[in-house]
Write a structure and sequence with these properties.
Helices cover 35% and strands 15% of the residues. It has 9 helices and 8 strands. Strand 7, helix 7 and strand 8 form a beta-alpha-beta unit. Helix 3 crosses helix 4. The longest helix is centred in the last third of the chain and has 13 residues. The structure holds NADP nicotinamide-adenine-dinucleotide phosphate (NAP).
């Protein structure tokens, strides 16, 4: 697929590397292309652009910007460039405040989520929450002795979730579909839980697994 990734941070670069490794075409979108000079040198097949031409390039969009900037980044990407496209949303609504006893603070409430806000603001885009509940270093084909970890996803569009599920399968994940966009109210806070061992014990290598009986 042609994948337009909005972002220049660890998540954007890591997922871009994964998409390239799995044979996809990738463009990274940023306001500051100079930030990606080193990445470009290491990934000659990867392309770099602004938010708008990156969204225009992608048949699949990945949103990997700071949560507080997600709406602005999508506005810069352009509503028309997002319309009818699957948008894998890796963002978390982390507030600009330090964690308390290892627990991050969010700018959303339990009765709302960042992805629902994005879906309301860009109704023609087909958002799928994914990749938000694990650190960047474990996003692409993570290796755990207990086997494949679980990625919790949600979104209103079944076709978009099918595309995201195919990508997650390539990237070495089991997928647990938690339903409609409103489930992001539960999936986004998994990021808070995931980060606690990191902040308390500097342990950043773990992932969630949903155990079920057949
Ligand atoms: N880091 C992780 O391990 C991890 C894991 C799971 C989920 N997440 C989530 O994934 C997202 C990306 O995380 P990250 O650590 O890779 O990077 P980040 O530092 O949270 O975000 C960097 C990106 O945000 C963009 N940005 C910042 N302010 C902006 C503004 N005012 N307008 C438009 N864009 C703006 C930057 O754009 P420019 O390129 O133009 O500067 C850059 O691409 C976040 O929502 C984070 O919560 C992170």
């Amino acid at each position: 697929m042609k994948v337009g990734i909005l972002g220049s941070g660890d998540v954007a670069k890591t997922l871009a590397g994964g998409f390239l490794r799995h044979g996809h075409e990738v463009k990274l979108g940023t306001r500051a292309p100079e930030k990606l000079a080193e990445w470009a040198g290491q990934n000659p097949k990867g392309q770099i652009g602004g938010f708008s031409d990156t969204a225009n390039f992608g048949d699949l969009i990945v949103l990997a910007v700071k949560g507080t900037a997600a709406v602005d980044a999508l506005r810069a990407a352009g509503t028309a460039n997002l319309a009818r496209k699957p948008v894998i949303d890796a963002t978390n609504p982390i507030a600009d405040a330090p964690p308390a006893n290892g627990v991050l603070k969010f700018f959303t409430t339990h009765d709302d989520s960042l992805m629902e806000r994005l879906q309301r603001e860009f109704p023609e885009a087909r958002f799928v929450k994914a990749f938000n509940s694990v650190g960047a270093a474990c996003m692409v084909n993570p290796q755990f002795k207990a086997g494949k970890p679980t990625m919790f996803i949600c979104g209103n569009d079944d076709t978009a979730k099918k595309i995201a599920t195919g990508i997650l399968d390539q990237f070495g994940w089991e997928v647990a579909d938690m339903g409609q966009a409103g489930a992001a109210r539960a999936i986004e806070p998994l990021c808070m839980l995931w980060c606690i061992p990191g902040f308390l014990r500097n342990d950043w290598v773990h992932a969630f697994k949903l155990l079920t009986n057949p």
